[in-house]
Amino acid sequence: MSDDSTGGVWSSSNGTVAQAIAMTGQINGLVPGSVTITYSFISGCYTVVPVYLPTPLPAMLTILQTPMDSMLCRGTPVTLTAHDSNAGTPSFVWKLFGTIYIGVGSTLTYNPAHGDFITCIMTTSGVCASPSVVAKDVVFNVWPVVSPIVDLTCTQADTAAYLGEEYTFYTTVTNGGASPVYQWYINQVPVAGANAPVFTTRIYNDNDTIFCKVSGNSPCDTGSNTGISNARVIYGQGFLRVGNVTVGNELGLFPNPNNGSFVLSGKTGSTADEDITLEVTDMLGRTVYTGTATVQQGALRAEIKLAEEASGSYLLHVQTATGSETFHFVVSR
Questions:
Q1: Domains, in order of start, for the chain
Q2: Average confidence score pLDDT of the chain
Q3: Which residues pair with 150 in a beta bridge?
Q4: CA distances from 50 to 11, 28, 228, 305, 326 (A)
Q5: Nearest residue to 319 (alpha-carbon basis) of 276, 255, 284
Q6: Which of 253, 244, 266, 239 is nearest to 323 (CA)?
Q7: DSSP letter, residue 332
Q8: Apex CA 105: angle with CA 102 and CA 108, to 5°?
Q9: How far apart are CA 8 and CA 12, in angstroms?
Q10: What pLDDT, on the 0 to 100 scale, is given for residue 35?
Q11: Cis peptide before 180 (omega within 30 of 0)
Q12: pTM of this prediction?
């Protein structure tokens, strides 16, 4: 109990020592529960005030983040929503790194960098809550937006030993995701059907340049980021060239590039009439066309039309009486 300046005394029924400010009737130090507060004068007069002090409710704060970390890419804004419990009508303040004010209210939209953390500070109001101020942190894990890194290797020499030597190339991909998409190129032209991490082809030309492009599907790659490997140049020794491989034949293929329709014409080394065989293969060695043509008095003009072959590099193999020739051509649809 305590005395006030008018000679009165404050006391409480639950035995708590009440510290009172007599002029305002404010008493501190009471515990929750039912209690009566008595104010007694020296003269013997007194007044009794019954009071119920509620037990403080546990104030709680949770933060909902959209999108979650597993889908959060650099440059993507996130929305943080504060959800309160036992806080009455609370107010919210948002801080970056605990000191920089960046917003108020129950919702915050923010474009984070990797490692940022935001604190939401909730102040309760209109309810008996403990604690009266609650803070919650959110730490961001931001995925980078990167292109695949592609490393091309081949264990064979850079100079082919003979016409049609088979070469195998391998790729190692970083930042490609679970299912990267491959496209191999020879001399800047995509090879139809060459969409695997390993590429095998035969070398028919001098100085063929081989490389691979990879489109990744890592968490933050939409497919627009493409990685290009280092290029590998395979050198010939003069015998790797397009057309006129065999002495005696003077054949040419035109136009090149073409849309799948082209003409093979010229003279063979023989003046007799003969039938020659024609075969078109892709760069993986798969046959896409076979046919024959007739040479009359050593002259040839054959029109060849491919069906629906995709754009890319192809080889025309010609077998005549005097030998064989191989032509490299490009289909561009």
A1: 2-53 (no CATH), 57-139 (2.60.40.10), 149-234 (2.60.40.10), 250-331 (2.60.40.3080)
A2: 80
A3: 173
A4: 12, 15, 82, 104, 109
A5: 276
A6: 244
A7: -
A8: 55
A9: 14
A10: 67
A11: no
A12: 0.46
